[in-house]
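User: Let's play a game. I give you a shape written as tokens, and you guess the letters that built it. Ready? Here's round one.
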């Protein structure tokens, strides 16, 4: 599928350069054949005509990164949910990955016990049935009980999941892995040597949290909720 990415900005937008740099670097890494169009919006009339909600705006295949409900047209600066004037890189990556329609998505970290396990459970609950979801680690151990508990709180049963090594995924029959999301932050993530689209979302390891049961579970909830936000953007 051909990708068309449009960046719309006002002439004096102080975030235009950073937004263009984000767009070009992400496209070069994930979809180098995509078409990039820069559109300058000069006044309120053009903003109305283009249904432009503020500068900078990024559209992928004519759809705003934030979806269809982004508010009324406005010849003004735009603020994203993070409070920044540039869309978060993970959101652009998620939308591009969705447009690339992967058939087998793999989540990687070291132990395959917490982040990648929660990502696997959440992705399976959101992805179309046609998309295969896997997770693995370079040093697989066991599924962390707090990960199972955190997913259970949002209605996802991960009790049947288990830790797996990268080599096991390579040997598994079925559609080859064509999208890899690495989740390590403090550690060196395992490397996937196959031909696949790659995204790196460094999230803190909740398994490293200390304190009471409630404090540790709170760390897992935080990572769970961030994964849910990003994977919802990817699949929905």
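Assistant: Ready! My guess for every position:
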């Amino acid at each position: 599928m051909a990708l068309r990415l449009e960046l719309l900005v006002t002439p004096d937008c102080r975030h235009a350069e950073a937004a263009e740099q984000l767009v070009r670097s992400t496209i070069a890494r994930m979809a180098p054949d995509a078409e990039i169009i820069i559109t300058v919006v000069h006044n309120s009339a053009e903003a109305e005509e283009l249904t432009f909600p503020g500068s900078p705006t990024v559209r992928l295949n004519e759809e705003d990164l934030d979806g269809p409900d982004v508010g009324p047209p406005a010849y003004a600066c735009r603020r994203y949910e993070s409070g920044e004037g540039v869309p978060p890189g993970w959101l652009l990556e998620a939308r591009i990955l969705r447009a690339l329609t992967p058939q087998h998505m793999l989540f990687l970290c070291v132990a395959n016990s917490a982040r990648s396990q929660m990502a696997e459970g959440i992705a399976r609950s959101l992805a179309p049935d046609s998309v295969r979801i896997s997770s693995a680690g370079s040093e697989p151990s066991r599924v962390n009980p707090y990960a199972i508990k955190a997913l259970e709180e949002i209605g996802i049963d991960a009790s049947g999941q288990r830790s797996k090594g990268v080599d096991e995924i390579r040997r598994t029959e079925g559609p080859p892995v064509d999208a890899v999301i690495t989740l390590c932050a403090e550690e060196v993530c395992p490397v996937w040597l196959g031909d696949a689209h790659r995204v790196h979302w460094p999230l803190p390891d909740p398994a490293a949290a200390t304190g009471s049961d409630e404090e540790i579970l709170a760390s897992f909830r935080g990572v769970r909720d961030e994964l849910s936000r990003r994977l919802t953007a990817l699949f929905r």
